[in-house]
Amino acid sequence: MPESESIAARLALQDLKLPQLSLPQANYVPFKRCGQIVFLAGQTSIGEVNFQGTLQSADDVARGYAAARQCGLHLIAALKMACDGDLTRVEGCLKVNGYVQAAAGFDSVPAVINGASDLFVEVFGSAGTHARTAIGVSVLPRDASVEVEAVFFLRSA
After folding, report:
1. Residue ranges per domain, the chain?
2. Global model pTM greater than 0.70
3. If you classify domain 3-22+29-154 with CATH, what class do you get?
4. Band of residue 122 on the pLDDT scale cut at 50, 70, 90
5. What is the 3 state secondary structure string of the chain?
């Protein structure tokens, strides 16, 4: 199966559809390229489903994981724009930073950000593996539960 079909097939197999991204509401862009490196602006868990509010206990981990997964879908949609629509150009993911609106003492921040990390591996295979930081914070834009940013690199066109 050609690589482009395998990425499309992986998305379809998981019943995943890339969202239409809304335009930034401030002075920034969804992505910035420097050569073959793509810096993706943070994407929040506000979208098709709004994952909002502070994660407080182990009972919130599954909801947080789903929120991070939604952030990952938003990031892949922005990455597709950066690749002129051709996700087969993705060579790999370098770095993921994940932020979770977490109550004091919520120590499952890494388990929440696994939602985005796991998605990248499901979609891109071994090229989706990455270095990562997962941080708990007191507040995120629009009361989002999760925000994730990423850096990818591309094959030459």
Report:
1. 3-22+29-154
2. yes
3. alpha beta
4. very high
5. CCHHHHHHHHHHHCCCCCCCCCCCCCCCCCEEEECCEEEEEEEECCCCCCCECCECCHHHHHHHHHHHHHHHHHHHHHHHHHCCCCHHHEEEEEEEEEEEEECCCCCCHHHHHHHHHHHHHHHHHHHHCCEEEEEEECCCHHHECEEEEEEEEECCC
